[in-house]
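Predict the 3D structure for this chain.
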Amino acid sequence: PRRRTALVVDDSLSARRALAQAVEDAGLEVRTARDGLEAVAMIETHRPDLLLVDLEMPRMNGLELTSHVRGRDATRALPVIMVTSRSTAKHRREAQAVGVSFYMTKPFADEELLQNINAALSGA
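Done. Predicted structure below.
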């Protein structure tokens, strides 16, 4: 069976690297993008099995990216895990409204990430 792929989208290099490493440790193949626009272009050419997106990014943020993904037939069911330092109820509601599958606040335990990845990929 082919390895599942995840696209990690974050404008911070250090955050992108750390998240990519954690996702790789979970057994997935990882691609990375610096922002939502770069992610959109990558999704068009290689559709991943899972998206891990930061909330706040330049050009196209995580909410806008999720809206874009949900608005297209080809990617409507793509699981999206939002990983952010924003923990307010307002941010959670906004994420839920655009269709984010799982909302995680930094810092998080690798175990929590693993559980969310497994749940997202099994369609929970």
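Strands lie at 5-9, 29-33, 50-53, 80-84, 102-105.
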